[in-house]
Write a structure and sequence with these properties.
The protein has helices at about 10-25, 35-50, 55-60, 65-70, 80-100, 105-110, 115-125, 145-155, 175-185, 190-200, 210-230, 240-250; strands at about 130-135, 135-140. The protein is an all-alpha fold and about 270 residues long. The chain has 2 domains: about 10-170, Endonuclease III, domain 1, CATH 1.10.340; about 175-250, no CATH class. A hairpin with a 2-residue loop joins strand 1 and strand 2. Helix 1 (about 10-25) packs antiparallel against helix 8, helix 4 (about 65-70) crosses helix 5 and helix 9 (about 175-185) packs across helix 12. It starts with 11 loop residues before the first helix and ends in a 15-residue tail after the last helix.
Length: about 270
Protein backbone atom coordinates (compact mmCIF):
# COMPACT_ATOMS: atom_id res chain seq x y z
CA UNK A 1 0.00 0.00 0.00
CA UNK A 2 3.02 2.33 0.18
CA UNK A 3 2.92 5.08 -2.45
CA UNK A 4 6.31 5.66 -4.09
CA UNK A 5 4.86 8.18 -6.54
CA UNK A 6 4.48 10.89 -3.92
CA UNK A 7 6.93 9.66 -1.27
CA UNK A 8 10.72 9.58 -1.30
CA UNK A 9 12.35 6.23 -0.68
CA UNK A 10 16.12 5.72 -0.76
CA UNK A 11 18.90 4.80 1.66
CA UNK A 12 17.74 4.11 5.22
CA UNK A 13 19.06 7.30 6.84
CA UNK A 14 17.70 9.52 4.07
CA UNK A 15 14.29 7.84 4.09
CA UNK A 16 13.93 8.18 7.86
CA UNK A 17 14.97 11.83 7.60
CA UNK A 18 12.38 12.48 4.90
CA UNK A 19 9.59 10.73 6.81
CA UNK A 20 10.31 12.60 10.02
CA UNK A 21 10.10 15.96 8.25
CA UNK A 22 6.95 14.80 6.44
CA UNK A 23 5.20 13.79 9.63
CA UNK A 24 6.31 16.90 11.47
CA UNK A 25 4.19 18.73 8.88
CA UNK A 26 1.43 16.18 8.40
CA UNK A 27 -1.53 18.27 9.54
CA UNK A 28 -4.19 20.79 8.47
CA UNK A 29 -4.92 20.29 4.78
CA UNK A 30 -7.78 22.77 4.71
CA UNK A 31 -9.33 25.25 3.94
CA UNK A 32 -7.49 25.44 0.60
CA UNK A 33 -8.50 22.48 -1.63
CA UNK A 34 -5.22 22.74 -3.54
CA UNK A 35 -3.24 21.97 -0.39
CA UNK A 36 -3.40 18.26 0.42
CA UNK A 37 -1.26 15.46 1.80
CA UNK A 38 0.01 14.27 -1.56
CA UNK A 39 1.14 17.77 -2.44
CA UNK A 40 3.07 17.96 0.85
CA UNK A 41 4.71 14.55 0.37
CA UNK A 42 5.66 15.29 -3.24
CA UNK A 43 6.97 18.78 -2.45
CA UNK A 44 9.29 17.37 0.21
CA UNK A 45 10.38 14.56 -2.11
CA UNK A 46 11.18 17.09 -4.84
CA UNK A 47 13.06 19.30 -2.38
CA UNK A 48 15.23 16.40 -1.25
CA UNK A 49 15.97 15.23 -4.78
CA UNK A 50 17.01 18.78 -5.70
CA UNK A 51 19.17 19.26 -2.59
CA UNK A 52 19.96 16.27 -0.37
CA UNK A 53 21.14 18.57 2.43
CA UNK A 54 17.80 20.36 2.78
CA UNK A 55 16.65 18.24 5.74
CA UNK A 56 19.90 18.34 7.69
CA UNK A 57 19.35 19.23 11.33
CA UNK A 58 21.43 22.40 11.30
CA UNK A 59 19.56 23.74 8.29
CA UNK A 60 16.17 22.93 9.76
CA UNK A 61 17.09 24.66 13.01
CA UNK A 62 17.61 27.97 11.22
CA UNK A 63 14.76 27.96 8.69
CA UNK A 64 12.92 31.18 8.00
CA UNK A 65 9.23 31.21 7.17
CA UNK A 66 10.10 31.90 3.54
CA UNK A 67 12.50 28.93 3.59
CA UNK A 68 9.62 26.74 4.72
CA UNK A 69 7.37 28.09 2.00
CA UNK A 70 9.96 27.27 -0.66
CA UNK A 71 10.61 23.84 0.86
CA UNK A 72 6.90 23.14 0.41
CA UNK A 73 6.88 24.22 -3.21
CA UNK A 74 5.98 27.88 -2.77
CA UNK A 75 2.54 29.42 -2.98
CA UNK A 76 0.39 31.47 -0.63
CA UNK A 77 -2.12 28.72 0.19
CA UNK A 78 -0.11 26.79 2.80
CA UNK A 79 -2.07 26.86 6.08
CA UNK A 80 -0.36 27.48 9.44
CA UNK A 81 2.95 28.33 7.81
CA UNK A 82 4.42 30.01 10.94
CA UNK A 83 3.61 26.93 13.01
CA UNK A 84 5.15 24.63 10.40
CA UNK A 85 8.33 26.71 10.48
CA UNK A 86 8.45 26.50 14.28
CA UNK A 87 8.04 22.72 14.18
CA UNK A 88 10.85 22.26 11.66
CA UNK A 89 13.17 24.45 13.72
CA UNK A 90 12.33 22.42 16.81
CA UNK A 91 13.05 19.22 14.90
CA UNK A 92 16.44 20.51 13.80
CA UNK A 93 17.44 21.78 17.24
CA UNK A 94 16.55 18.57 19.07
CA UNK A 95 18.15 16.31 16.47
CA UNK A 96 21.36 18.36 16.50
CA UNK A 97 21.55 18.58 20.28
CA UNK A 98 20.57 15.03 21.24
CA UNK A 99 20.77 12.66 18.27
CA UNK A 100 23.88 13.71 16.36
CA UNK A 101 21.59 15.23 13.76
CA UNK A 102 20.40 11.78 12.68
CA UNK A 103 16.74 10.73 12.93
CA UNK A 104 17.87 7.15 12.34
CA UNK A 105 19.58 7.25 15.75
CA UNK A 106 16.23 8.08 17.32
CA UNK A 107 14.54 5.19 15.53
CA UNK A 108 17.34 2.79 16.51
CA UNK A 109 16.96 3.80 20.16
CA UNK A 110 13.38 2.51 20.11
CA UNK A 111 14.72 -1.07 19.69
CA UNK A 112 12.08 -2.15 17.14
CA UNK A 113 9.21 -1.12 19.41
CA UNK A 114 6.41 1.06 18.05
CA UNK A 115 5.36 1.98 21.58
CA UNK A 116 8.91 3.00 22.49
CA UNK A 117 9.24 5.20 19.42
CA UNK A 118 5.91 6.95 20.03
CA UNK A 119 7.02 7.60 23.61
CA UNK A 120 10.39 8.90 22.42
CA UNK A 121 8.79 11.20 19.88
CA UNK A 122 6.47 12.76 22.43
CA UNK A 123 9.26 13.09 24.99
CA UNK A 124 11.79 14.63 22.61
CA UNK A 125 9.61 16.91 20.47
CA UNK A 126 6.98 19.17 22.09
CA UNK A 127 5.28 19.54 18.71
CA UNK A 128 4.37 15.84 18.75
CA UNK A 129 2.69 15.95 22.18
CA UNK A 130 -0.83 15.40 20.95
CA UNK A 131 -2.58 15.01 24.28
CA UNK A 132 -5.29 16.89 26.10
CA UNK A 133 -7.61 16.83 29.12
CA UNK A 134 -11.22 15.68 28.90
CA UNK A 135 -13.37 16.29 31.97
CA UNK A 136 -10.36 15.99 34.23
CA UNK A 137 -8.89 12.92 32.51
CA UNK A 138 -5.79 12.90 30.28
CA UNK A 139 -6.37 11.74 26.70
CA UNK A 140 -3.50 10.73 24.43
CA UNK A 141 -3.89 10.63 20.65
CA UNK A 142 -0.31 11.08 19.37
CA UNK A 143 -1.53 11.06 15.77
CA UNK A 144 1.66 12.32 14.12
CA UNK A 145 4.00 10.32 16.35
CA UNK A 146 2.06 7.15 15.54
CA UNK A 147 1.85 7.91 11.84
CA UNK A 148 5.63 8.38 11.74
CA UNK A 149 5.95 4.82 13.04
CA UNK A 150 3.37 3.65 10.53
CA UNK A 151 5.13 5.39 7.67
CA UNK A 152 8.43 3.79 8.63
CA UNK A 153 6.75 0.39 8.73
CA UNK A 154 5.12 0.97 5.35
CA UNK A 155 8.12 2.47 3.58
CA UNK A 156 10.56 -0.16 4.84
CA UNK A 157 7.98 -2.95 4.45
CA UNK A 158 8.39 -3.99 8.06
CA UNK A 159 12.13 -4.52 7.77
CA UNK A 160 15.23 -2.68 9.05
CA UNK A 161 14.31 0.77 10.33
CA UNK A 162 10.68 -0.14 9.72
CA UNK A 163 10.62 -3.30 11.81
CA UNK A 164 8.37 -2.96 14.84
CA UNK A 165 7.59 -6.08 16.81
CA UNK A 166 4.52 -4.45 18.38
CA UNK A 167 3.08 -2.64 15.38
CA UNK A 168 -0.35 -3.88 16.45
CA UNK A 169 -0.19 -1.55 19.46
CA UNK A 170 -0.78 1.52 17.30
CA UNK A 171 -4.29 2.95 17.15
CA UNK A 172 -5.78 4.52 14.06
CA UNK A 173 -4.55 8.06 13.42
CA UNK A 174 -7.23 10.40 14.74
CA UNK A 175 -7.76 13.09 12.11
CA UNK A 176 -10.74 14.62 10.29
CA UNK A 177 -11.02 12.47 7.14
CA UNK A 178 -11.80 9.11 8.78
CA UNK A 179 -14.60 10.43 11.03
CA UNK A 180 -16.04 12.17 7.97
CA UNK A 181 -16.23 8.80 6.20
CA UNK A 182 -17.53 6.94 9.26
CA UNK A 183 -20.29 9.49 9.69
CA UNK A 184 -21.31 9.09 6.05
CA UNK A 185 -21.46 5.31 6.54
CA UNK A 186 -23.65 5.66 9.63
CA UNK A 187 -20.97 4.34 11.98
CA UNK A 188 -20.65 7.67 13.78
CA UNK A 189 -23.88 9.47 14.66
CA UNK A 190 -23.45 13.16 15.50
CA UNK A 191 -25.77 14.98 17.87
CA UNK A 192 -27.95 17.66 16.32
CA UNK A 193 -25.74 20.35 17.85
CA UNK A 194 -22.52 18.82 16.55
CA UNK A 195 -23.98 18.09 13.11
CA UNK A 196 -25.02 21.73 12.77
CA UNK A 197 -21.57 23.00 13.71
CA UNK A 198 -19.83 20.63 11.30
CA UNK A 199 -22.25 21.03 8.40
CA UNK A 200 -22.11 24.83 8.59
CA UNK A 201 -18.29 24.70 8.55
CA UNK A 202 -18.03 26.34 11.96
CA UNK A 203 -14.70 25.85 13.66
CA UNK A 204 -14.40 23.49 16.62
CA UNK A 205 -11.70 24.77 19.00
CA UNK A 206 -8.77 22.46 19.54
CA UNK A 207 -9.17 20.72 22.89
CA UNK A 208 -12.90 21.39 23.11
CA UNK A 209 -15.11 18.57 24.36
CA UNK A 210 -16.79 18.06 20.99
CA UNK A 211 -13.47 17.91 19.14
CA UNK A 212 -12.02 15.41 21.62
CA UNK A 213 -15.18 13.30 21.41
CA UNK A 214 -14.99 13.10 17.61
CA UNK A 215 -11.39 11.94 17.73
CA UNK A 216 -11.86 9.51 20.63
CA UNK A 217 -14.99 7.89 19.22
CA UNK A 218 -13.25 7.52 15.85
CA UNK A 219 -10.37 5.64 17.49
CA UNK A 220 -12.87 3.42 19.32
CA UNK A 221 -15.01 2.83 16.23
CA UNK A 222 -12.03 1.76 14.12
CA UNK A 223 -10.91 -0.62 16.86
CA UNK A 224 -14.40 -2.16 16.93
CA UNK A 225 -14.26 -2.53 13.15
CA UNK A 226 -10.87 -4.21 13.44
CA UNK A 227 -12.21 -6.67 16.02
CA UNK A 228 -15.26 -7.42 13.87
CA UNK A 229 -13.00 -8.18 10.92
CA UNK A 230 -10.78 -10.37 13.10
CA UNK A 231 -13.84 -12.33 14.22
CA UNK A 232 -14.51 -13.06 10.55
CA UNK A 233 -10.98 -14.25 9.94
CA UNK A 234 -9.48 -11.04 8.56
CA UNK A 235 -6.33 -10.22 10.49
CA UNK A 236 -5.59 -6.53 10.07
CA UNK A 237 -3.97 -3.91 12.27
CA UNK A 238 -5.58 -0.61 13.20
CA UNK A 239 -2.82 1.04 11.17
CA UNK A 240 -3.75 -0.86 8.00
CA UNK A 241 -7.45 -0.27 8.55
CA UNK A 242 -6.77 3.44 8.98
CA UNK A 243 -4.96 3.52 5.64
CA UNK A 244 -7.89 1.81 3.92
CA UNK A 245 -10.45 4.16 5.45
CA UNK A 246 -8.37 7.29 4.91
CA UNK A 247 -7.78 6.48 1.23
CA UNK A 248 -11.48 5.75 0.78
CA UNK A 249 -12.32 9.07 2.40
CA UNK A 250 -9.85 10.93 0.21
CA UNK A 251 -11.30 9.35 -2.93
CA UNK A 252 -14.88 10.18 -1.93
CA UNK A 253 -14.36 13.52 -0.19
CA UNK A 254 -16.45 15.50 -2.68
CA UNK A 255 -19.44 13.24 -2.03
CA UNK A 256 -19.10 13.09 1.76
CA UNK A 257 -20.72 15.38 4.33
CA UNK A 258 -18.48 18.11 5.71
CA UNK A 259 -15.55 17.21 7.96
CA UNK A 260 -15.08 18.97 11.28
CA UNK A 261 -12.80 21.98 11.19
CA UNK A 262 -10.19 22.45 13.89
CA UNK A 263 -7.11 24.55 13.30
CA UNK A 264 -4.38 22.54 14.98
CA UNK A 265 -0.86 21.28 14.43
CA UNK A 266 -1.81 17.79 15.58
CA UNK A 267 -3.79 16.58 12.55
Amino acid sequence: MWNDVHHFRGASAATVQYLLVLDALNFCFWPEPSWDYNRLALALKSAYLADASCFQAERLAHLTQEDTRQLLGGGDDIPLLPQRTTLLRELGRVLAARWEGQPLNLVTAATHSASNLVALMSAEFPGFRDHTIYRGHPVYFYKRAQIFVGDLWGSFEGQGAGRFDDIDQLTMFADYRVPQLLRAEGILDYSERLATIVDLHRELPSGSELEIEIRATTVHAVELLRRALAARGYQITALELDWILWNAGEAQQEQLPAHHRTLTIYY
